[in-house]
Specification:
By secondary structure, the protein is an all-alpha fold. The chain has one domain. A hairpin with a 6-residue loop joins strand 1 and strand 2. The chain is globular and about 65 Å long. Helices cover 72% and strands 1% of the residues. A two-stranded antiparallel sheet has the order 1-2.
């Protein structure tokens, strides 16, 4: 074991590996910041560069870029309410309100430190847990994945302040949009209205760019002010404040990291679900859940810690069983095979040095990303205070380019504009855009796993699968807790009067 750890580090101690690591991290930060792209596009563009170089250097380039996109995607979510990728969605809920309150530096600092700590926990997990987690993975089936997705839906109550009905309507609309296109199980076309383009469904990154980015620029144009509230006036925090926040909420980081590891281990679930689930558990376990959605720093820390740890968890099934933990891991699996790395049980014996090379890359890439992120956060925090005449065309051009780059279709740019109008209208009439997107993210996962569960286990699968039943009870309890806590506060205030 110690020899493998040393060999893994030695593979990265060459000039080529060091250079590729730095290039990968910088490239990943840039691509991560561009809306609609993120880790999948970053890795896909690097695939041609996986031939003819040292194995350690190539892994450093790929994994370094992949790790860096995590924090890169968080930047635009926090500063402009524009998720850099689907997995960064949860960062907009509290990250952007912090920016509006003049605390962008604090939010970016907390985000970078939480991602670092989560990534380190993920690396340690990857190093020690592959033999332990295998039987657990094999015990879970589609019915358990269904419960996990349903748990993600419980967060809709958080963003339904003032009207739970409006929150439910927004979620239902998101689910309906996700149903456009081919049925994932039967292949039957649905809601395509004879338009060939709609057979592929509505691209989630494109819809997200429209709902948040385009809609926010419309609001900014109508308001005619900077994105930072006039009350805040100017930046009122420092990056160090955010770092202290992350260290202060160390237990939240540990909990969120363990959740990210768990979701990363489950094949096909993906980091976007992890970010939403992390936010949900942060709200449900908080003593002051009413602060969330209004600029609570915990709402930034929890998702980023989960996303950082998710990568270590996602590599576990990819390496041990050849089953991608998510979309980005599928691209990595292709790269591994092209480099002669064959995933499977032999990775734990003859390929242990390669596993530890990846562990070291995750550690070093996380440290490099955090150092770069903390160094530039102070300058990035000034961007939302730019004149709207500069901000609007700059952000719109980048976002519409991102919408086009997702699939190379001009129609996606039109769809982004349409969803921009929808997002602006929803915000104006206080229908939660967050609920809309959560419904859209989880709809396919719920539908697919429900179909498979019914076919495999029958109509009574909830009661015949003990783990599924236990998870359902857990969902009911965690969903009820905020309402019980609110009822107790009202009762206590009534007694006081």
């Amino acid at each position: 074991m110690l020899e493998a750890i040393g060999a893994g580090l030695a593979a990265l101690a060459t000039p080529q590996a060091v250079a590729f690591m730095i290039i990968g991290v910088v490239y990943g930060l840039v691509v991560g910041i561009l809306p609609g792209l993120g880790g999948i596009v970053a890795l896909a563009l690097l695939l041609p560069f996986t031939y003819g170089y040292e194995l350690g250097a190539t892994l450093a380039l790929l994994l370094g870029a992949h790790i860096a996109t995590i924090w890169g995607g968080s930047v635009t979510s926090i500063l402009f309410k524009v998720p850099g990728a689907a997995k960064s969605l949860a960062l907009v809920f509290d990250g952007h309100p912090m920016t509006q309150q003049g605390q962008a530096s604090r939010a970016l600092g907390a985000s970078a430190m939480a991602a670092l700590l989560g990534g380190l926990i993920g690396a340690v997990f990857l190093a020690i847990s592959i033999p332990i987690v295998r039987p657990v993975m094999l015990a879970l089936g589609p019915s358990e994945y269904l419960m996990l997705a349903l748990w993600g839906l419980t967060i809709i109550a958080t963003f339904s302040e003032g009207s739970l009905l409006k929150g439910l309507i927004a979620t239902a609309l998101g689910i309906m949009v996700a149903f456009v296109g081919m049925d994932p199980i039967t292949g039957t076309p649905r809601f395509w209205f004879g338009i060939i383009y709609l057979l592929d469904g509505i691209s989630f990154p494109v819809a997200m760019i429209g709902l948040f980015a385009v809609a926010e620029m419309m609001k900014l144009y109508v308001k005619g002010e900077t994105m930072v509230d006039r009350v805040a006036g100017h930046e009122q925090s420092t990056v160090l404040d955010g770092v202290k926040d992350a260290l202060h909420h160390w237990w939240l980081i540990v909990r969120s990291s363990l959740l990210g590891l768990w979701i990363g281990v489950l094949p096909g679930v993906g980091a976007s679900v992890g970010g939403i689930a992390a936010y949900a558990q942060a709200v449900q376990t908080s003593k002051t859940p009413e602060r969330f959605g209004k600029g609570a720093v915990e709402g930034v820390i929890a998702p980023d810690a989960t996303l950082g740890a998710n990568e270590g968890g996602g590599l576990m099934p990819t390496l041990a069983f050849g089953i991608p933990g998510g979309e980005s891991m599928a691209i990595l699996l292709i790269a591994f095979l092209s480099m002669g790395i064959v995933p499977g049980p032999q990775m734990l014996t003859t390929g242990l040095d390669i596993v530890f090379t990846m562990v070291w890359i995750i550690v070093i890439a996380n440290v490099l990303t955090t150092l770069l992120g903390l160094a530039i956060s102070r300058h990035l925090a000034r961007l939302p205070m730019l004149n709207p005449n500069i901000m609007i065309p700059l952000v719109l051009s980048v976002c519409l380019f991102g919408a086009f780059a997702t699939r190379g279709l001009v129609a996606d740019v039109v769809i982004a504009a349409v969803f921009g109008v929808i997002g602006y209208t929803m915000d104006k009439y206080r229908y939660s855009r967050a609920n809309f997107v959560i419904g859209m993210v989880l709809a396919e996962m719920i539908e697919r796993n429900l179909h498979i569960s019914l076919n495999l286990y029958g109509n009574d699968f909830i009661f015949t699968r003990p783990i599924t039943l236990a998870m359902l009870i857990f969902i009911v309890i965690t969903t009820a807790l905020p309402f019980i806590r609110s009822w107790r506060k009202k009762s206590a205030s009534g007694v006081t009067r």
